[in-house]
Amino acid sequence: MRRLTLCATLACLLLHASHADQLPELGDPSANTLNSQQEHELGESIMRQLRSSGDMIDDPDLSDYLHHLGYRLASNSPEPGRSYDFFALKDRTVNAFALPGGHVGIHTGLILAAQSESELASVLGHEISHITQKHMARRFEAESRMNLPLLAATILAIVAAHSNSQVGLAAAATTQAAGSQLSLNYSREHEREADRIGIQTMYQAGFDPRAMPRFFEKLQKSTQLLDNGAFAYLRTHPLNQERIADSQGRAEALPYRQVGDSIEFLLLRERLRTLHEGPQKAIEYYSGMLQQGKFSSEPAYRYGFTLALLQAKEYVRAEQELARLRKQIQHPYLEELAAQLALAQGQTDKALSIYQAALNLTPDQAGLVYGQIDALLQAHRNRQALAAIAEHKGQFGAPPRMFKLEAQAYAALGSPAREHQALAEYYSRDGNPREALTQIQLALKVAGSDFYLQSALEARQRELRAIVANAPKQQQQQQ
Question: Which end of the chain is more exposed for a tag (fewer CB within 10 A), N or C?
């Protein structure tokens, strides 16, 4: 399996409010460090590489969930008004990391390892604290005098240090960062500050602070039993018993709070399990667990079972399991599953009917929106698909997937200029500005006499030329 192992900052965690006066405010916003614009450029440079790696998960529901959870925490952080970008990478390792510019990455392995939503929130709260306190920017500012492109390459080299060469990130980035001894490891003081602020953030957001030491104690025990690299970050950020005990004491000083998991967390965790295991192994797993009654949430396990059956094309059994599941819970994810089952069996009209009925109840559900557009395209209702895209394009921050669907619709309608224009935006947002520029140039060749389209394409061409000209040579070679 291709891995993008991102050595980051999860080792230690948690704090205690009564000890706040003992910890220095290392992240003072007035500190002389990289300014906000430089952090933004640095973060975007790294994100373009990550997007082009193929490891980022394109799941509207997962993205929507992570942003909802992340902003719930961020709104209770020291900087509640700043912007963040939360994303997931398909990687079995247990890890998460913060990048300049407010980007927070979460490995799917961490989501699977978290036994509660509060455990996941503890990690996000810690990473958000690294951002609000400007720990990475301050660390690199103190240890390096690199320019931004080289600094981006250095961080990327560290991030991709254990990546499979198939991705090509590690070798190229390491060439740019040769001789650098920088790491994503934060200092002990930075970690303690992120612990202290992170636990307050998650507690104020309504989560259980005791989940933090429980999670990391479990990870420490697991890495003692296993030597497969799944918990590699614990080797570079040792989590000893003294620190776990300290975190327990700090968490227990806060009022006790019992917090349940959201149904979204439970269902998406099983969706990720089927993604990693594949349909056949997942079917065996869920079948055995459901028969033995070994589950923390029967609806979640039955959801994973139904999804695996759909992926294995066992449609009759999938329909039966979905019927059982509907008697236990009602949720938009189930309507998506029902529509996908109908589409898989060639029942396009039924699928569209399911999507429309569900959207009438939950019009902002990302998975339903994208599912309906995809179903409209399969039904050759291309103008309806374009209308739906226009309606929702700004709703979800105009992600790459929306523009790819738009290009597909224009291609079916025989509008090559608009098709290339949409593809240009897809590639631009997917981290490939050179291909985006190529698509704009192709669009200009076939735009005809449409003055407004020509003007828009020429303006976008100038913007993309500037981006390509300023991109690191290493990035251009990869693309």
Answer: N
Which residues partner with 106 through β-bridges? 88, 96
- 105: helix, coil or strand? strand
CA distances from 303 to 159, 264, 267, 291, 318 (A): 34, 11, 7, 15, 10
Q: For the residues of 361-427, what is the DSSP string, one character each?
A: H-TT-HHHHHHHHHHHHHTT-HHHHHHHHHHHTTTTT--HHHHHHHHHHHHHTT-HHHHHHHHHHHH
Tell me how far apart the alpha carbons of residues 20 and 173 are, in angstroms, rounded to a whole number.
38
Query: 36-52 vs 148-159: helix axis angle to the nearest 10?
Result: 50
pTM of the predicted model as reported, rounded to 2 decimal places: 0.83
Contact assessment for residue 156 and residue 100, using Cβ atoms and an 8 Å cutoff: no
Q: What is the DSSP letter of 15?
A: -
What is the pLDDT tens value at each position of the chain, 479 positions in all? Answer: 333 333 333 323 222 223 333 333 334 443 445 677 777 777 887 887 788 777 889 899 999 999 999 999 999 999 998 999 999 999 888 888 888 889 999 999 999 999 999 999 999 998 999 899 887 766 666 555 555 565 666 566 555 543 443 344 444 444 444 434 444 456 667 777 788 888 889 999 999 999 988 887 877 776 554 445 555 445 434 465 766 777 788 888 899 888 999 999 999 999 999 999 999 999 999 999 999 999 989 999 999 999 999 999 999 999 999 999 999 999 999 999 999 999 999 999 999 999 999 999 999 899 999 999 999 999 999 999 999 999 888 766 678 889 999 999 999 999 999 999 999 999 988 878 899 999 999 999 999 889 999 999 999 999 999 988 876 544 444 44
Buried b (16+ CB within 10 A) or exposed e, 91-121: bbbbbbbbbbbbbbbbbbbbbbbbebbbbbb
The DSSP H or E segment spanning 86 is strand 85-89
Closest CA to 379 of 403, 408, 401, 359: 408
Residues contacting 246, CB < 8 A, separation 6+: 14
Please say whether the beta carbons of 218 and 167 come within 8 A. Answer: no
